[in-house]
Every structure is written in C-alpha cells, then in structure tokens.
Amino acid sequence: MTERIEFETERLCLHQWKSADRFSSIDGLIALQTQKQDALKAHKKGLMQQFFPSSDEVRK
C-alpha cells in the first residue's frame, strides 16, 4: 500500500514539474511577444513622426 502511495506521489510531483515547466515556457513566450510589441510601437512612433513632423520642424 505504501509503495502505491509513493508511486502516486512521485507521479503527481512529476506532473506538477511538467506543468510548471509549461507555464515557464508560456511566460517566456509572453515576454518575447511583449518585447516585440514594444519594438513595433516604437517603430510606428518613429514612422508617424516622419509623416507628421512637429510644428517646430515644419518652420525650419
């Protein structure tokens, strides 16, 4: 009986480790996508500034 409990405990621990690993991978993907989104927003801002210069730049 105790062997079965130990086996189940080991199996559950392994499942928890696998789940934690999956969540870590997902967190990493979210972080990368956030960085990509931030870079695209910065690029967009630069393009918008080229298309629509500030009034000070127009007067020069």
Task: Report what the structure shows.
- There is one protein chain.
- This protein is an all-alpha fold and 60 residues long.
- It has helices at 2-51, 55-59.
- The protein has one domain (2-53).
- 92% of the residues lie in helices and 0% in strands.
- The N and C termini lie far apart (86 Å).
- 0% of the residues are buried.
- The model has no long low-confidence stretch (mean pLDDT 89).
Give a quick summary of the entry.
This protein is an all-alpha fold.
List the helices and strands and how they pair.
Blueprint: H1 2-51, H2 55-59
What keywords describe this structure?
60 residues, single chain, rod-shaped, mainly alpha
The number of E-state strands comes to 0
Whole-Å distance between the termini? 86 Å
Question: What sequence of helices (H) and strands (E) makes up the elements?
Answer: HH
Q: How many separate structural domains?
A: 1
Helix content, binned percent:
over 70%
Rg, nearest Å? 26 Å
State which percent range the strand residues make up. under 5%
Could you list the spans in which at least 5 consecutive residues all have pLDDT below 50?
A: none
- Biggest sheet statistics: none
Class computed from helices, strands and strand pairing: mainly alpha
Mean pLDDT: 89
Instruction: State the shape.
Output: rod-shaped
Report the total helices: 2
